[in-house]
Amino acid sequence: MYLRTSVAVLLIIVLIFQSCVAYQKTMVRMEEAENMGRSKAITVHGTKVVLKNIEYIDGAYYGENFKKQKTLLDSAQISAIYLKDVKKSKRQSLAIIGVIATPILFIGIQYLIFLLGDGHDHM
Hints:
The protein is of the alpha+beta class.
């Protein structure tokens, strides 16, 4: 029972942290962000908008969100666009998972040792 609970908790944590995303520090133009995948746009008012993709359609740029809704992007209203940093995102996710998984794995091993023994602590 304990092991199943630990595995379930670990899987939930892994799923939660799959959404950890790091963005490149260098701004790009809309033309450069076109069809490059996930990006973060900052409006002139400071609002952050996460986009699944930026597309050029009929002479205008559109940002697609994760609900597959497209919104016209007005270059006068966008102060910066940052692309997803794939390598950094993977490293962050792995580091977070490692920090969480290590103690759970350690506890699981200790529990297995306890079960494989006679169930009594002989200290």
